[in-house]
Design brief:
about 120 residues, mainly beta, seven-stranded mixed beta sheet, four-stranded antiparallel beta sheet, about 0% helix, globular
Length: about 120
């Protein structure tokens, strides 16, 4: 069972950048596909980005963040990252790290493990 802990959230002005980190416990991190989801107040949780298992050759992004956000992973450090550039007020949300055991997915219902979330607030 994986435990995921996010960090790196905070308050930033529009146009700024943040890097979120997700530290995973256990020795099987490289076998998990990793995702980031987000949830804004009053809205459903939505997919942000995903990276495939092992070498992370395949990445996937929501259209709303494509070209601005980059997902990556460091298997030696058991950590996944989300680099967020050109942030907009509409990116304000709680960001959740997630892990999938079987295959890379963009569907929340197919996620096996969730972190507790980290708040990102973008001011205009």
């Amino acid at each position: 069972q994986a435990q995921l802990v996010e960090s790196g959230g905070g308050l930033v002005q529009a146009g700024g950048s943040l890097r979120l980190s997700c530290a995973a416990s256990g020795r099987t991190f490289s076998s998990y596909a990793m995702d980031w989801f987000r949830q804004a107040p009053g809205k459903e949780r939505e997919f942000v980005a995903a990276i495939s298992r092992s070498g992370g050759i395949s990445t996937f992004y929501a259209d709303s963040v494509k070209g601005r956000f980059t997902i990556s992973r460091d298997n030696a450090e058991n950590t996944a990252y989300l680099q967020m550039n050109s942030l907009k007020p509409e990116d304000t949300a709680v960001y959740y790290c997630a892990a999938a055991r079987r295959y890379v997915t963009v569907v929340a219902a197919e996620i096996d493990y969730w972190g507790q979330g980290t708040q990102v607030t973008v001011s205009s």
